[in-house]
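Lab channel / #folding
Pinned by the channel admin:
"Please post every new chain as: sequence first, then the structure tokens as a reply. Keep commentary short and put observations after the output so the thread stays searchable."

First post following the new format, from NK:
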Amino acid sequence: MQRWKIIFCACLAVFLTTLSLAWAAQEYKTQVKLSGTRLSVQHLVEGKGKIKESAVLLDKNNKIAARWKQRTTNKCYKDYQDGWKYFRYVPYTMDMKHLPAGNYRFVTTTTLANKQSFKETRKIKFKPKVTMQYSKTKIVRNENGDIWQRLYFQKKASAGKMCYAQIFDKNNKLVHSVKYKAKNANEDFAFSWNGWGRGKSAKKCPKGMYTVKYWMDGVNPKTAKFRLSI
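Reply from TO:
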């Protein structure tokens, strides 16, 4: 009976060691997560003692898109991986919603207590879903006090893209159109209309229901109904 207990304990020890090594292989590494436009990096640094670290996000043209100031950290963790090892995770987060889609590089610069420095690079492919959606309309006044009707559209991942809108009356006649180049990725697209039709001989459009057709580069056109109230 005693012999079986020894064999069982030995097998259990081997199993736990194997499980620990498998877990370590998965967990003990720099982790980069991109959820929508939210970037989260847990940078793994091995060794104990005080370190200083900073990071930058570089775009495809090697220009700095974001920068994290240098921080100092002393706290580290101890775990057994083919011997006792010390490590820590240095966290970095940002919202990339104002950045265009493309390839980026996340570069960390770590300085150890002995003044030795090293850099590490992680590649990031940023490809958020491009969307554009009609939101609402409301009556506004311009600086001269004139009344206009303003239409609003929500959009994502639109930096540098052209946005378009066309308004049609109940007879499907085009009465107004506009286009706009987006500067920021998630900036709302909005335009004001005074209710007048197109061309020199245009007339004031009557109040009532109209259709707005809208789209932007990379997004199929959609339509929405709204009421002209001016």
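NK: Residues 148 and 194 are 5 Å apart (CA to CA).
TO: also worth noting, The helical segments are 2-27.
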